[in-house]
Design a protein that fits this description.
Layout lengths: L2 H4 L2 H15 L1 H4 L27 E3 L8 E3 L4 E5 L6 E6 L2 H10 L4
Antiparallel strand pairs: 1-2, 2-3, 3-4
InterPro entries: 6-blade_b-propeller_TolB-like
Organism: Brassica cretica (Mustard)
Keywords: Membrane, Transmembrane, Transmembrane helix
């Protein structure tokens, strides 16, 4: 019995395309190596957030930050490896009042 009768065409075509993709990866998928460019993404640093989120991340015009708006309404600012994330602002006045009420003052 010929192989064409054993395997349906719909199963052979994706397998052949997958094999060609692996073989011709450098030609089809890999980005061009441009003169004068640098691969700086491999040197990027991951900064963990202490909360769920962020909803957005921004930098100020002077290059400070990053600032991260998180789910609970706070805006956090990255102050470097020594300080980490600090609370920069609140988007709700209730958040500040709740923090005062939760804190145990002597």
């Amino acid at each position: 019995m010929p192989i064409s009768e054993k395997l349906p065409t719909w199963a052979v075509v994706p397998a052949v395309l997958a094999v060609f993709s692996v073989i011709f990866y450098q030609i089809l998928i890999a980005p061009d190596n441009l003169n004068g460019t640098k691969n700086v993404l491999s040197m990027a640093k991951t900064i963990p957030l202490p909360v769920d989120g962020p909803e957005s991340i921004e930098w100020d015009p002077q290059g400070g930050g990053p600032y991260a708006a998180v789910v609970d309404g706070r805006i956090l600012k990255w102050r470097g490896d020594g300080l980490g994330w600090v609370e920069f602002a609140y988007t709700s006045p209730r958040r500040f009042l709740q923090r005062l009420l939760d804190h145990d003052y002597p």
